[in-house]
Design a protein that fits this description.
globular; five-stranded mixed β-sheet; three-stranded antiparallel β-sheet; signal; D-Maltodextrin-Binding Protein, domain 2
Amino acid sequence: MTKRQLVTGVAGVALSAALGTQALAQDFDWKAHDGETITFLANNNPWATSVLKYKDDFEAKTGITLAVDSYQEQQMRQRLMTVMNARSDEIDIFMTLPSREGMQFAAAGWYNDLAEHAKDDVSPEYDFDGLGDALVEAATFDNVLTGIPLNIEGPLLYYRKDVFAECGVEVPDTLADLQAAAETIKSCKPDMTAFASRGLKPALPYTFSNFLHNMGGSYMADGRSALCSDAAQSAIDTYATLLRDYGPPGVVNYSFYQLTSLYRAGQAAMSFQSSNELSAVMEGGERLEDTGIVPLPAGDGGSVPTTIGWALSVSAFSDNADAAWYFVQWATSPEMQAKLALDGIAPPRAGAADDPDYQAWLAEQTVRGEWNAALADLAATGTSEVGYPIVQNPESREYIGQAVNAVLLGDSDVAEACAAANEQLDALIARQ
C-alpha cells in the first residue's frame, strides 16, 4: 500500500479544518493554557534557529512557558529515541522528518494525531487549507496526521560564479558536465575544493538520492533492493568519484554543517547541499554577490530532484498535548511562516510566496531569486524518496551510505559494495 493510499480523507480533514475554523473563530482563546509549561525538543537547524528568535512573542501571546531542549541533528535523534522508547512524557513537541522516520514512528505509535486539533482548536487566521497538499500528505500515515509542515527543501547546487568565470567553466547541464567542471576547476584552482557534498554515512542519502533518481534509478524494484541496477551503480560510481577526486579531505565526516562552513569560507567552488542552508551560507555577506544556485544537473533519467520538508509533531506520550498544539499552530501559522521566509526558510504555504515583503526580500539579491526559482522546480518535479520506502527507512540509509563510502574509500568496487548492501537491505525489507 502506498503512502498516497494511506491518506484517503486528508482533503476531508482540510475541508473540516476550514469549516471548523469558521465555526470556532469567536470562541478561540490564545490564553486557554495560560500558566502551563511545554517542552520542545529542537533540531538545531535553520528553521528552529529562526523560530526560536520569537519565543518571547509566543509566551506573551499564550501565557505558556516554552522550555527548549536543543541539539545538533544526530544528537537530537538519539535523545528523541531514548525518550520515546521509554514512553516518557518529558518531551511534548519535536521536529520530525516524515520522509525519513515518519513511517517508523507512526508504526510505533509515537505521534499524537493532529487532525482533530487542526479541525476543532484553531485560531481564525490559521488557514490549514493553505498548507501544501503534498506536504500534508507526506506527513500522514494510516490516516494519522503526524505533524504540520514547517518548510519545503531539497539539495541544490551552490556554485561560485566568479570561479566558474575565471576557469572558463559553464554552468553544467548534465551530470557528465558536472564532473568535467570539477576536473577543470581542480586544475585551475588546486587549492580550492572543486565539489563538496555529504559523505557522512547516515546523512549521505539525502544528497545521493538525487543522483540516483537523475540516473534513472530507484531504491526498490519488485519488492527487492535495486541498489545493484545499472542506474544505481552508475549513481554510486559518479557520487563516490566526485567526492574522492574533487571533494575535501575527510569528506566521509561531512554533513550540512561542514558543507556550509566550507562554502561560506570561500574554500569550495561547488557545494551540493540543502536549500535550507541559504541563510547560513550567506551569513556575513561574503557569498551574496558571487554565488549562483541551480538544481542538480540532469542525468540519463532526467531531472528528478529530492523534495522534502520537516514537520512539527506532538508526542503521543505528552501530558500537555492541547497546550503543545498551541505552539505548533503558532509556529506554523501564516504570520510566522511569512516571517521565517525572510530568514531563507522556504514556506510550505504557496500563498506566502505572494507576500509583498517576501517578494521584496527575494528581489534584493540575485541569489535569492535563483534559490526561489530552484525551489519552485523542486516543488513541481521532485520526489520524497530518500532511502527505502519501508518502516526501517532510517536503518536503510546506513546501508546506502555504507555502499557509497566503501567505493569512496577504495575498500570495494561498485559491484562488490552494492551486492554487500543489497544482502543487508533485502533482509531489512523481508522484516516488514
